[in-house]
Design goal:
3 helices, mainly alpha, single chain
């Protein structure tokens, strides 16, 4: 596996984690369990049928990823 593939996987995983955690970003542990039960949040919160859109950190990571792809020899 190439390093660029590993880096891509990290960025995609980070974006997926951000989308999953968006609904509870500023919640405390007690609040999360009270709202979602003992398992916590287990699925994406959908808005208009889609998970949360790109956030600032996702966009920054995506820009870094595009730059690395352009530099690859």
């Amino acid at each position: 596996m190439r390093d660029i593939d590993k880096f891509s996987g990290c960025l995609i995983g980070g974006a997926a984690g951000d989308a999953l955690g968006y609904a509870i970003e500023f919640c405390g542990e007690d609040e999360i369990f009270a709202k979602y039960g003992s398992e916590g949040i287990t699925e994406y919160k959908l808005t208009n049928g889609a998970a949360q859109t790109w956030r600032r950190l996702d966009r920054r990571g995506n820009a870094c990823h595009r730059g690395l792809l352009r530099c690859e020899v």
